[in-house]
Every structure is written in C-alpha cells, then in structure tokens.
Amino acid sequence: MLRLYFVSFILFSLLACSGEDTLSTAPVEQPPKPAVSITLPDDFSANENSLVALTGSARGQTTELTYAWSLTPALDIAHDDTTMAAASFTAPQTTVPVDYIASLTVTDGLGNAATDSVMITIQPVNTLPTPVIVANQHANYASLQFPAGSAIVLDGTSSFDTDAVDINNPITEWRWSQTAGSDITQGKSLDGEILRLTAPIADPGESMTFSLTVTDGEGGQNTAQVTIAVVAASDTLPTVYAGENVTVTSGENILLLGQADTVNPDAMPLSYRWLNDSQLAPSIVSENTLATYAVAPSVTESSTATFTLQVTDALGNKVEDSLDVKVVPQVLSRLNDTGVILHSDGSAQVNSQALVAQYPNQDADNGRDAIAKNGNQPKAGEGDKGFDFTKLDLYGDELPDNATTWRCVRDNVTGLIWEVKQASAGLGFYQHSFSWYQQENNGGIDGALNGAASNCNLAQCNTTDYVLAVNNAGVCGFYDWRLPSHNELVSILHLGKTTAPLIDSNYFPFATSGLTAPVWYWTSEPSADGVSNDESQNAWVVDFATGNDNFINKGSAAHIRLVRAGR
User: Where is the signal peptide (predicted)?
Assistant: First the structure.
C-alpha cells in the first residue's frame, strides 16, 4: 500500500507540473497589422531661404499608393507627382529658429490611409550688410582729393543688405570713425548715413582714413573704410565762378560778375583776368576787374560768346572758369523802354559801374536804352536814349529832327502818332484843362460835361468835345484822334529824367511848363476804384511831372494829349 501511494503521489505531482507548463506556453494575442505603414526620416533642420526636400516611404495593401504632404504653419509645397513621396518647399526667411511640422498622409488603392509627421526646424542665416562710402568731388581735383578748407562729405546711404528683413530699411545703424590722420571729427555727429567734415587748412597736406560700420535688421555688422588726401594750404587753388550762362540781345550789356576767394590768407591778394574765347569780339570794359561787363556784338543770327575768368593767387596757383553767352539779333519791338540808363544803389540813381555787381540785372543793363547807350540801336528818327521819334508838320509829313515848328510826333517804336501841345492860346494850348466825359466804355457813368475847374476855349471843356474839335480841324491831316489808353500814355514817359517834364521835351514841349504838379493827363480808361452804385466815378490819369499814375474824379480838371494809330 505504501508503494502504491508513493507512485500515486509521483503521478499526481507530474500531472500538476504538466498543467502549469500548459498554461505558460499558451499563444499571446497580437495587435492587428496596419493596412498602410509609413517610414519618415528623423526630425532635422534646414537653413532659411533653402529648398527643403520632403522624403519618406510607405507600404499598403496594394502597390497603388497616393501621397499628400502638409505643413504646419502652412507653407506652399511643391508636389507634382502624388504617386511618389518626394516633395519640397522653400524655407521662409526668419530671424529666429522656427519649427514646422511636415505631415505625410498615404492612401492605398483600397482606401486604407495612414499619417505620420516629422519636425523641421528652420534656422536663420544672416548675410552681412555691405557698407558703401561715396565721397563728394571737387572741381580741379582728383577723386578723394580735398583742398584745404573745403567740405568733406562722406555718404553711406548706398549701403545695402541682400537679405534685408525690411527692404525699405535694410540698414538700421551707421557708425563713423576716423582711424588715421589729424582728428577732424571733434564736435561732429558720427551716427547717421552722412558724415560732414571740413578739411583742415595747414601745411603740409596729409592723408586721413575714415571707416563706416553698418548694422542690418538681424544685428549683423560689416565695416568699410576710405582714405582721402587733404591738399596743403599752399597748394590749394583759389575758388572761382564765372557766372551762369545767359542770353542777351545785340547791343545789350553782358554782365560779367565773377566770384573768387581763397582759404589761405598767405595767398592774398588775388588777381583777375577776363578773356574772350570765341570768334565774336565783344569789348570787355575792364578785363582785370572781377565784376565788369562787355557789350554784346551785333549779330544776324544766334551766336555764342564764351568768357573765361582766370584767377591767380599770390603763390602762383591759377584756376579758371567759363560761361557761355548766347547773343541773339535785335528783334523789332513795338514797346518803348523806360529811358533809364543809370544804376541804383537802393536809394538814388547813380552813374556807377560798380553797382552792376552789387545790384545786377537792373533796367539800365537791358533793353533799347542800354543798346542805344552802347551805340547799337538803329533808329528811323531821333530821340533820347532808346526813344525814336519823328516830327510831323501840319499835314502829317515828316520833318527833319532840327525843325523848330511841328504839330505832331510819330513814335517810330510803337507806330503811334501823338498830338503836340501848343504855346498859343488856340486849339491844343498846353494850359487848357478838361473834365472826363465819355458816352461809351465809361464804367457806367458818362462823367462831367463841363467840370467846375476845367478851362478851355470850347463851349464845353470835356474830353469828348476836345476830341471832336481836333478831328474837325483835321490836325496834321488826320481825323481819327482819340484819348490814349493807360498803357499808350505811359509808353512815352521818360523815367530816366530826374526833373519835370518826364517826357522827351525835344519832341513834346510844354508838357508841364508853368503848371503846378501833379500835371495830370487823361486816359480813356475808367477806374474800378471809387465805384458807387456800380458806376465808376473816376478815370485813370498820368502825371508827366513825376511819372506817377493814379485815378481822379471824372469831374476834375486834367490835360489831354490825343493819339492816333500810325501809318
């Protein structure tokens, strides 16, 4: 029994062990295998502005696979063939590292799909800015050569940055410094696009070096330098300016208003010489004077005269500058000049050529009067300054200039014929005065038929009756006399005279003789000043004692000088 029990125990034990082995070796349930699997590279980095390749591989239930990429944040992806995984995108510009998630979704022919992602870090890459220094250029000197005392302008505005963060402001900071030579930057601003300095006045000359450091929007810096040569004071040329190019008429004054200076006191005094460098032969009044003039020669077609101003300092340094003067032929003008041939110093008329430089381009330098003064104004008759008059007899025929009796005067410039006042107490007596009366073009009111202060030998002393009387008499054989306009009457004023009468009395006697200033002469024009109830109460007059014009009441007394068109 004992043996049997022992055998039974062994069998039970073996069976128990056998049961444990059966439980431990039972199969483990595995997760289902994905229908589509994707393999992507590890996370990686790429530089800004570079072309980034997107790669990967996949397996599905079919060999037909479709690939679709996306980026977060979103960017454009180049993926022409969606049956392949290969795609690309351009890394954006950035100033700090930026992470992008690239996701690939793959779909097989049965519609099974899977997605996987990779992180791509875009790294900033800064191209350093390029500093550019441009120096100003002085005439008569080599590039980067500066005369003593001259302006030195170093300009960095052309500096640039090829990968600018802000294309409108590629450079954020400019910083200048002087690295060689005598320091001339004291008290000057060294920040900014432009550095402005002054070359020292000293002997000997020397070289100076300046550097410019520029900073871009990403903090990148780059430096450039320039070396200049400062000329010794003893070798620095005087400055010279001959003047602007001008156009003048034959016979007018050509103003030669040169300018010259030197920064070196030891180079004083300066000497000057004007030269005529053209085929024309204008006469220079004083060729060794800085400011002078020449008379424009007579030409038949537009021609050019060139004048050169030479300046030499006491050390023998010489420099020159030129100007061109276009001389044009005289044009037949229907306008009189003023009669002024004197210059003004601001308070009075004086006959001083020095004022040509101090107060250039005055009336005395241009026009018929200046041409006549220089002896180049042709005339059909005679007359003071630029005026050109011819005396006419009772029948309107021309008289010689020395005639002592004449009734009318023809203005050969304007073509107008003027009445001449008479010494006898008949028609045209110089002392007669009239009120203004005009039934047409009168500003709304005729005027006065017989002003209280008027004085004449007609029944009614007014402008209209006087015009009728002169036309009825056929003065100088003409029957179309009229009151002059304001401009017509002013055209015979001689403003070059300093005492009354301000008219050429050799042709227009008795204009103010024995009369108290102002000596008003009527025009045909009513005045807009002094309107009452939309009616012009006044008319324009010209004073031949002072040259002034004004308006007076139509009932006032004034003198008359009639005019007619020429023939």
Answer: 1-18
On whether both 387 and 243 belong to a single domain, the answer is no
CB atoms within 10 A of CB 538: 23
Segments in 395-451 forming alpha helices (H): none
Same domain assignment for residues 247 and 196: no
d(CA 291, CA 286): 9
Q: What is the pTM of this model?
A: 0.62
Q: Are residues 268 and 355 in the same domain?
A: yes
Q: How far is CA 422 from CA 232, 426, 433, 528, 564, in A?
A: 77, 8, 13, 33, 18
Q: How far is CA 36 from the centre of its chain?
A: 75
What's the pLDDT tens digit per position in 519-541? 999 999 999 998 999 999 999 99
How far does CA 382 lie from the centroid of its chain?
Answer: 45
Element (H, E) at 463: helix 463-473
188 and 275 together in one domain:
no
The answer to whether residues 369 and 428 belong to one domain is: no
Q: Is residue 249 part of a domain?
A: yes
Side-chain half-sphere CA neighbours of 5 within 13 A? 2
Same domain, 151 and 282: no
Residues 6 or more apart from 205 whose CB is under 8 A from it? 148, 229, 230, 231, 232, 235
CA 219 to chain centre: 39
Q: For residue 424, give its domain range.
A: 379-567
